[in-house]
Design a protein that fits this description.
Elements: E1 35-37, E2 52-55, E3 60-64, E4 71-73, E5 94-98, E6 113-118, E7 126-130, E8 140-144, E9 148-152, E10 158-163, E11 171-175, E12 184-187, E13 191-195, E14 204-209, E15 217-221, E16 230-233, E17 237-243, E18 253-258, E19 266-270, E20 282-284, E21 288-293, E22 296-301, E23 309-313, E24 323-326, E25 330-334, E26 342-347, E27 355-359, E28 369-372
Parallel strand pairs: 1-2
Antiparallel strand pairs: 2-3, 3-4, 5-6, 5-28, 6-7, 8-9, 9-10, 10-11, 12-13, 13-14, 14-15, 16-17, 17-18, 18-19, 20-21, 21-22, 22-23, 24-25, 25-26, 26-27
Length: 378
């Protein structure tokens, strides 16, 4: 095996280093520095599959997966999360479900409970803690990183956060300028966006810096309103699907934003199953978003623009008005009308109907929300 022991080298034109062809081994006791840049500086043309770079915005290594998929980050999920009862006897990505209401005739009609599950396993949810800002019928997902999830009560400004690796009640985060219910959010590792609602602020988008504890800041506006909207994200792009102008229940419009920038959303395409009922329960990995409408599930390829396509169905006793969370390989949908405690799951790679996962610990989960430390934006 040959060795090259030099500190730097370039080709004869001094416009780059020569290609290393064949099996090459780099060994040292210090470190190797890959190419570096921001998300906006990602190369998009003439990039070889498997190319490696460091992203200043996400603070993570990423690799190129092909023209239709683009860049993905290396997963940094803590393998030690789990270790409880039910689904949490296993280890893996942690999913969170919280909030909602049970409708007329159930007392109490709302809850501030937080449940958690280990997404890669099967079994019932376990109690995580409580939202300290109170109980509300429409908990808003403001965003989550690998370590922290941020939520807002649907009809109030205060936001609170939880730390995924621990259990316990949420802690104060900051305030939002949005006080509308039936909003929803997307996030990257660093930034969370939440948008919409039922009345005056229905098309407004705000953002937070997840690692801080500060107030939300204006981001831009949706083209239309967003009442009970489905959401998903890659590390660069956030999707809002089923955008509708109140008091209409929903529409089939899909819009997108670039999470690391500021500005208004752009048209993406249309849902094939939209236009009749609320779009709420949704999940995504880094390439695919799954949105539910009544009992149907459809998929959206995040890196492209275009219409959704059919994926499968929820069971007859679970509908779209619950919460969703995900790992890189699996999407979970929990709760909904009636009230309903069921959790179901699908595998992102295979278009098929959802199957049973387990149960939530509380029944007040209509218009609640879900998130995880392994969703598509991380």
């Amino acid at each position: 095996m040959s060795k090259i022991n030099v500190r730097s080298f370039s080709n004869e034109n001094e416009d780059g280093a020569p290609d290393l062809v064949g099996i090459s081994t780099l060994s040292a006791t210090s470190y190797f520095v890959p190419t570096r840049g921001t998300t906006a500086q990602r190369p998009s043309e003439h990039v070889e599959v498997g190319s490696l770079r460091y992203n200043y915005d996400t603070k993570n290594l990423e690799y190129y997966r092909g023209d239709t998929i683009g860049w993905s980050q290396f997963e940094l999920i803590d393998p030690e999360l789990g270790g409880g009862t039910g689904s949490n006897t296993g280890l893996g990505t942690r999913g969170i479900f919280t909030g909602g209401y049970a409708g007329p005739g159930v007392s109490p009609s709302t809850t501030n409970s937080i449940d958690f599950v280990t997404i890669s396993t099967l079994g019932n949810a376990q109690e995580f803690g409580d939202l300290t800002s109170g109980a509300d019928q429409d908990i808003v997902r403001c965003g989550s990183s690998r370590t922290r999830g941020v939520f807002r009560d649907g009809n109030s400004a205060p936001m609170t956060f939880i730390t995924f690796a621990s259990t316990g009640n949420s802690a104060s985060f900051g305030s939002s300028g949005l006080t509308e219910n039936r909003a929803n959010g997307v996030s990257s590792e660093t930034r969370g966006l939440h948008a919409g609602g039922t009345t005056s602020n229905r098309n407004q988008i705000e953002y937070i810096t997840i690692a801080s504890t500060g107030n939300a800041v204006d981001f831009g506006n949706l083209i239309t309103g967003a009442q009970s909207v489905s959401t998903g994200a890659s590390s660069t792009r956030g999707i809002f699907a089923g955008c509708a102008t109140h008091p209409a229940n929903s529409s089939n419009a899909i819009e997108f934003v670039t999470i690391s920038t500021l500005g208004n959303s752009q048209d993406f395409g249309d849902l094939v199953n939209g236009g009749t009922t609320y779009q709420t329960s949704s999940s995504s990995n880094s390439t695919k978003m799954l949105a539910t409408n009544d009992h149907s599930i459809e998929q959206i390829i995040i890196a492209t623009t275009g219409n959704g396509t059919d994926f499968g169905d929820l069971s007859s006793n679970l509908d779209s008005q619950g919460g969703g969370c995900s790992s890189p390989t699996r999407a979970l949908f929990g709760g909904g009308n009636d009230p309903n405690v069921n959790i179901e799951y699908v595998e992102f790679a295979t278009a098929a109907n959802a199957v049973d996962f387990g149960d939530l610990t509380y029944i007040q989960n209509r218009h609640g929300c879900g998130t995880s430390n392994g969703h598509g934006g991380l």
